[in-house]
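> example.struct
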């Protein structure tokens, strides 16, 4: 039976990383399609990524997180039972990504932000229907170019963000692999647990079977978190589950 993973970040850095991962996933999906509507969606996703990079210094946040992970992993080199080959490969990858992120002049998304067409589209995204053909004829022209032309341009912009994407994927993979899920029971749909305030917990993950008749709402901080399992209704208004819910819980800390 397959499961659905529900994730709740416990700090602002992880929250920004998960949002960025979501946007990259949207871009990946539409980038591999060929219609003008897919190209429109892909470009909108890239603009959202660029905005997030501008509002939050993702480059600096990635550097801090990778350096922290590098220190934690380096301390494992003398521990008995550690897969030294895998550890060495991970540390080398962190070193490579850090080298590019720290390089003078590396400004992820610069090519995207400096493009006149992208700027024009961005200016009208907040207006409902603001990017239709008569508002942006240059955009309409670009969307009607062959899919190979649009795809090449979009991949060029995506490539400009590749190091950020690589660092992001690495950080989130390390976080998600930092602990093992454990079976838990939410009495009458409610579960609460304290966290060690001296540990740097980054994320709570809840796993439910894909045929479960409920979903979790997670709230938490570095000290404690709670989970309420909610039962959806056809009208769209969810109510708290009144039955016991079995689930898998993963508290990610590294």
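> example.seq
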């Amino acid at each position: 039976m397959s499961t659905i993973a529900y994730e709740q970040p416990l700090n602002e850095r992880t929250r920004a990383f998960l949002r960025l991962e979501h946007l990259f996933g949207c871009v990946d999906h539409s980038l591999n399609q060929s219609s003008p509507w897919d190209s429109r969606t892909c470009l909108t996703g890239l603009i959202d990524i660029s905005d997030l990079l501008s509002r939050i210094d993702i480059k600096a946040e990635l550097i801090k997180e990778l350096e922290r992970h590098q220190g934690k992993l380096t301390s494992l080199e003398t521990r008995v039972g550690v897969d030294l080959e895998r550890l060495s490969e991970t540390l080398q990858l962190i070193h490579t990504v850090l080298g590019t992120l720290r390089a003078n002049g590396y400004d992820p998304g610069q090519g995207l932000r400096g493009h006149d067409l992208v700027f024009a589209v961005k200016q009208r995204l907040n207006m409902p229907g603001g990017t239709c053909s008569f508002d942006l004829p240059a955009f309409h022209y670009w969307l009607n170019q062959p899919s190979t032309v649009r795809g090449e341009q979009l991949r060029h912009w995506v490539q400009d963000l590749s190091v950020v994407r690589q660092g992001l994927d690495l950080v989130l993979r390390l976080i998600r692999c930092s602990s093992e899920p454990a079976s838990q029971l939410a009495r009458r749909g409610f579960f609460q647990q304290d966290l060690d305030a001296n540990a740097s917990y980054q994320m709570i993950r809840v796993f439910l079977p894909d045929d479960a008749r409920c979903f979790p709402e997670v709230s938490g901080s570095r000290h404690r978190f709670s989970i309420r399992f909610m039962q959806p209704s056809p009208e769209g208004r969810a109510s708290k589950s009144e039955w016991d819910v079995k689930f898998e819980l993963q508290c990610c800390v590294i």
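> remarks
The chain has two domains: 12-174, 180-253.
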